[in-house]
C-alpha cells in the first residue's frame, strides 16, 4: 500500500535543523520501536512533510529539506513580549523555580488558546517571553524510512487521529 489520503503512516527519521548560518543540529530522532505514526491528510503536520511522503510505501527511504517559511515559519520578533510579573503570581507569590530563564511555560492568549512561551529574562517588574515555535526560523532536514502504511479505520477517520499502538488511546 502506498501513502495517500486516509492511510496511517509509520516512519522512522532523524530531524536536523539549521538556523541562519549555524551548523545543522540534530533536533529529534525516532526509532523503529518508537516510530512517528500519523494519519495522512488529517492536518497538524507540516504540509511539505506529507507531500514528500506521498506515494511512498513501506521500505522506501526519504531525505528532504523544508525551508523555515514552509515549516514552522520565520522567527518573528513581535512574538517576544514583556509580561508584568504580577501575571505570574500564585496566591501572591512569584514561583522562581517555575518561571526561570530557559523554562517553557504554558500560557493562554486573550481568546483562551493555550500556547507555550520560553522565558528569556526575569526582571524586577516583568518577565520577557518568546512565543515563537522553538523551530521558527529553522530550515528542517528529514532523513528516514517508511516503516508501515495501512488503511485508516473508520474510527480513526472520524476522530482525525491514529488509534492503537503508537497512536491515541481513549
Using brief descriptors, characterize the structure shown.
four-stranded antiparallel beta sheet; 170 residues; single chain; mainly beta; 2 domains; 11 strands; 8% helix; five-stranded antiparallel beta sheet; Chitinase A, domain 3; elongated; Thrombin, subunit H
In short:
By secondary structure, the protein is mainly beta. The protein has two helices and eleven strands, in the order βββαββββββββα. The strands form three sheets. Strands 1, 2, 3, 4 and 11 form a five-stranded antiparallel sheet that branches. It has a four-stranded antiparallel sheet with strand order 5-10-9-8, with no helix packed on it. A two-stranded antiparallel sheet has the order 6-7.
Strand content: 35-45%
Order of helices and strands: EEEHEEEEEEEEH
Approximate helicity band: under 10%
CATH architecture of the largest domain: Roll
What would you report as the Rg, rounded to the nearest angstrom?
19 Å
Through-space gap between termini: 27 Å
Structure description:
By secondary structure, the chain is mainly β. The chain folds into two domains: 91 residues, Roll (Chitinase A, domain 3); 54 residues, Thrombin, subunit H. 8% of the residues lie in helices and 41% in strands. The chain is built from two helices and eleven strands, in the order βββαββββββββα. The strands form three sheets. Strands 1, 2, 3, 4 and 11 form a five-stranded antiparallel β-sheet that branches. Strands 5-10-9-8 form a four-stranded antiparallel β-sheet, with no helix packed on it. A two-stranded antiparallel sheet has the order 6-7. Strand 6 and strand 7 form a beta hairpin. The longest helix has 7 residues. It is elongated and about 60 Å long.
